[in-house]
């Protein structure tokens, strides 16, 4: 089991999570490495938790099925549950966002493309369409009357 963990400095917001619904699935984007030959796939791959693919030679399914071009082994990964939201903490603490059951592969790097959402810390404001690709986000919470931000994002893939 692998987990995607995040450490981030949230100011004025909490409950940061990917916008991930059956109608609008979030595509988690990773670099992938074969655990047999240690070859890293040159391209980014995307996985969403609502799409299932057949695993050849078995009756099972997985969110992501991949065949290594180097050693020809087939590997798979399954997202275990919906993402956990990142809660505001001071100082920022590392928190697991999502867990994967990986068979024959490892995700080595994460790219935060896609839409995220968060809630106001001191207000009922919901912020949608948050873009974290640049590693930070700034906005203004009208109801709380203060600037809000997400900064110093550190993504880590670790054993769950």
Describe the structure.
A hairpin with a 5-residue loop joins strand 11 and strand 12. The chain has strands at 2-11, 13-18, 28-34, 45-47, 53-54, 61-62, 64-67, 74-79, 95-103, 105-111, 115-120, 126-131, 137-141, 146-159. The protein contains no helices and 14 strands. With 160 residues, it is mainly beta. The mean pLDDT is 95. It is elongated, with a radius of gyration of 17 Å. The strands form four sheets. Strands 7-8-9-1-14-13 form a six-stranded antiparallel β-sheet, with no helix packed on it. A three-stranded antiparallel β-sheet has the order 2-11-12, with no helix packed on it. Strands 4-3-10 form a three-stranded antiparallel β-sheet, with no helix packed on it.
Short descriptors:
160 residues, mainly beta, 6-stranded antiparallel beta sheet, 3-stranded antiparallel beta sheet
General form: elongated
Instruction: Please describe the biggest sheet, giving its number of strands, its sense, and whether it closes into a barrel.
Output: 6 strands, antiparallel
Helix content: under 10%
The H-and-E topology, N to C, reads as EEEEEEEEEEEEEE
Instruction: Please tally the β strands and state the result.
Output: 14
Q: How are strands sequenced across the largest beta sheet? A: 7-8-9-1-14-13
Mean model confidence by pLDDT: 95
Number of helices: 0
**Percent range for β-strand residues:** over 45%
Low-pLDDT windows of residues: none
The assigned structural class equals mainly beta
Rg value = 17 Å
| Beginning-to-end CA distance, first to last residue | 5 Å
């Amino acid at each position: 089991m692998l987990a995607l963990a995040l450490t981030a400095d949230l100011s004025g917001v909490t409950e940061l999570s990917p916008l991930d619904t059956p109608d609008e699935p979030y595509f988690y984007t990773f670099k992938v490495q074969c655990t047999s030959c240690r070859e890293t796939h040159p391209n980014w791959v995307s996985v969403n938790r609502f799409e299932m693919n057949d695993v050849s030679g078995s009756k099972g399914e997985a969110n992501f099925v991949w065949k290594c071009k180097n050693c020809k082994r087939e590997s798979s990964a399954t997202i275990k549950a919906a993402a956990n939201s990142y809660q505001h903490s001071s100082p920022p603490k590392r928190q697991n966002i999502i867990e994967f059951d990986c068979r024959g592969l490892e995700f080595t790097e994460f790219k935060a493309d896609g839409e995220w959402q968060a809630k106001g810390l001191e207000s009922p404001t919901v912020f949608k369409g948050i873009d974290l690709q640049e590693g930070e986000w700034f906005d203004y919470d009208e109801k709380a009357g203060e600037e809000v931000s997400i900064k110093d994002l550190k993504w880590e893939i670790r054993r769950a």
